[in-house]
Amino acid sequence: MRYQISGKQIDIGDALQTHVQDELGAVLQKYSQRPTDATVVFSKSGHEFVCEVNVHLSSGLTAAAKAHAHEIYAAFDGCAEKMDKQLRRYKRRLKDHHKDRTEPVELFGASSYILASDEGADSPEPESLQPIIVAEMETQIPSLTVGEAVMQMELAGAPVLVFRNEKKDGVNVVYRRDDGNIGWIDP
């Protein structure tokens, strides 16, 4: 398994890197026999340390966790606990998903845009109706079933997931509704 451990304007020592590899490896070994790579990013927010972990599993799914603490080791340990809890909850579904799928999840390229926000309701009328694009990035759209898409959204902790529906061969969206349920848009 590949680890990418880095810090945003924080020096990450060898002891912390070893601790991360040992602890995260133990968590992933319990629930997922073949994770492909893990990205761990440490940063500082005010007086707290922040740890973000993204793990790509061989089934094509991605699990994500984030934690804050006053000490950097405690931030990682909190993140590892969240990852452990997520993978424990989805262990059966992850194994069933991997058993039914003979090939990894197929990904399609797409463009992702970040648009500038309005500066409030009392802002002057814009000159044109074209939105101002702040950033343009490449993103990947996975080809999943609806159940796999909901599981991927839950594992990643994302509010919305755009995916290509394997059954109907069209682009669909699943999202978390304000009432706590999951919404599914199938055009």
From TrEMBL:
<comment type="function">
    <text>Required for dimerization of active 70S ribosomes into 100S ribosomes in stationary phase; 100S ribosomes are translationally inactive and sometimes present during exponential growth.</text>
</comment>
<dbReference type="InterPro" id="IPR038416">
    <property type="entry name" value="Ribosom_S30AE_C_sf"/>
</dbReference>
<dbReference type="InterPro" id="IPR036567">
    <property type="entry name" value="RHF-like"/>
</dbReference>
<dbReference type="InterPro" id="IPR034694">
    <property type="entry name" value="HPF_long/plastid"/>
</dbReference>
<keyword id="KW-0810">Translation regulation</keyword>
<dbReference type="Pfam" id="PF16321">
    <property type="entry name" value="Ribosom_S30AE_C"/>
</dbReference>
<comment type="similarity">
    <text>Belongs to the HPF/YfiA ribosome-associated protein family. Long HPF subfamily.</text>
</comment>
<comment type="subunit">
    <text>Associates exclusively with 100S ribosomes, which are dimers of 70S ribosomes.</text>
</comment>
<dbReference type="InterPro" id="IPR032528">
    <property type="entry name" value="Ribosom_S30AE_C"/>
</dbReference>
<dbReference type="InterPro" id="IPR050574">
    <property type="entry name" value="HPF/YfiA_ribosome-assoc"/>
</dbReference>
<feature type="domain" description="Sigma 54 modulation/S30EA ribosomal protein C-terminal">
    <location>
        <begin position="130"/>
        <end position="183"/>
    </location>
</feature>
<dbReference type="InterPro" id="IPR003489">
    <property type="entry name" value="RHF/RaiA"/>
</dbReference>
<protein>
    <recommendedName>
        <fullName>Ribosome hibernation promoting factor</fullName>
    </recommendedName>
</protein>
<comment type="subunit">
    <text>Interacts with 100S ribosomes.</text>
</comment>
<keyword id="KW-0963">Cytoplasm</keyword>
<dbReference type="Pfam" id="PF02482">
    <property type="entry name" value="Ribosomal_S30AE"/>
</dbReference>
